[in-house]
Amino acid sequence: MRNLGAFSVLAACLSFFIPAIALALSVGTPVNPGQYDGVGRVDGCSGTLISPTQVLTAAHCFCPGDKLGACRTRAEFKLFDVHPVDNPATTVNESVYLTNITIPGTLRIHPQYSQPTWNLNDFAVLDLDVPAHTMALGVRPIPLQDPSVLPRLGETLWLVGHGHTGNDCKGPRQKRWLALPTAEVIAHAVRFIQPGKNACPGDSGGAVLDQTGRLVAVISWIGRETNTRPTHTSFNWIAGLPDAPYGSCGWYPVGPQKSHGAGAAWCPSGQFLTQFDLEGDRSLDEHDAPIVGQARCCAPAAAPSAWNQCNWVRVGPRSHQAGGAWCPPGSYITQFDLDGDRALSGRDSPIVGQALCCRHTAPSINNWGSTAWWPVGLQESHGVGKAWCPSGAYLGAFDLDSGGQPHDSPYVGQALCIKPRP
Fold first, then answer.
1. What residue stretch is flagged as signal peptide (predicted)?
2. Are the C-beta atoms of 49 and 131 separated by less than 8 Å?
């Protein structure tokens, strides 16, 4: 009666099974027992078990309006159709039967969940009072995807939620799944737009999984499209990791020669780029010469100021794409070469030919954590004002934007900022 190996193996195999047919949560196929066991209900919303003691869900489910101070502090995570841990004090083997299990916990609301950015930080974590495996057998957490892996436009992702059903979303609640290609991927949102195939109320806080079965986003809100919030933007906070602040920061001169040559790093040893000033003749003009006048470099706090390894990495047309980081995991930008045809000209095409990526000697700095694209724009590209990256983050890439063409105007539309993962 205590031989549970078959149940454990079955649950482990099915918890990451990815269906091959795209159907909607509103009208699609219900989730079978043993499939996506880690997705349950958190009071009126959905939630995903991401570790034995943590459930990721949506903050708006627990905060009235946009008021962070009025958010609830306690909630319950309910698992459906799972095998409970057997009670040895009884003569019945409870673990043989499927049942629903509720585990209470304490809520953590994202500290930046408030207007005007609440929809960018719609995350809450329920810290369970006891590990899930002490009450439910074979329920495996669904881990967060590594923050260096960003969702791509057109990529098929799988949404799992415990919301209402039917074309009008007025049917009874049921756990369902859908697979849809992404229609829009921007800095803090992954959107799905297919009429009749959408999430419903109650799916908020549900899981968005990639083909590896890892969690890449949380279902946030529903309009004409299904909007989800990518987890890579707040990876450190979700995982309960502290941010490593800057130690020292400074602006360092660059100039024409260094802007167009693969020479020495612009930053002092142990520091990384956080911002730069596309200067030219210092006039604010979309057609200004693509010359970096000066660069802002910052060193991690409480870490030795030294690099471990530096390598030049080819960039090319990626200068005009908001994709993944240019640097290999664990490295950050310390210099780049505004290349084009490799000629030193004030009207050279604003393409980054290559970037110098360096790793730090401190191992904790070389693990990437929260990763997000942040808007920059014309003014910030040609001045030494507000920092592009949040405190503690370093440049991993940037998009020379205006229109997305290789000979686009030389200003930075957005910057990819990466925080170390302690």
1. 1-24
2. no
Strands across the sheet containing 292-300: 246-253, 292-300, 272-278
User: What mean pLDDT is predicted for residues 368-394?
Assistant: 79
CATH 2.40.10.120 residue spans of the chain = 5-238
What is the reported pLDDT for 288? 45
Helix H or strand E segment including 237 = helix 235-238
pLDDT at 83: 93
Q: Tell me the DSSP string of 50-68.
A: EETTEEEE-GGGTSSTT-G
Domain 5-238 bears CATH identifier 1.20.1050.90: no
Identify the CA nearest to 239 among candidates 161, 130, 145: 145
Rounded Cα distance between 170 and 187, Å, is 32
Report whether pLDDT(102) > 50: yes
Strands (E), 64-161: 74-84, 99-109, 124-128, 136-137, 156-161
Determine the average pLDDT of the residues in 334-360.
64
Return the DSSP state at 219: E
pLDDT bucket at 91, cuts 50 / 70 / 90: confident
159-191 burial: b if 16+ Cβ within 10 Å, else e: bbbbbbbeeebeeebbbbbbbbebeebeebbbb
Q: How far apart are the first and last CA of the chain?
A: 44
DSSP reduced 3-state for 1: coil
Torsion sign across C-alpha atoms 244, 247, 249, 254 = negative
What is the gyration radius of the CA atoms in the chain, in angstroms? Answer: 24
Rounded Cα distance between 212 and 190, Å, is 17
**Considering the entire predicted model, what is its pTM?**
0.81
* Predicted local confidence at residue 407, as pLDDT: 44
**pLDDT tens digits along 284-328:** 444 444 667 777 788 888 677 788 788 888 887 777 777 788 888
Question: Is the pLDDT score of 139 beyond 50?
Answer: yes
Question: How many CB atoms are closer than 10 A to CB 421?
Answer: 22
- What are the angstrom distances between the C-alpha of 177 and each of 173, 198, 344? 13, 10, 54
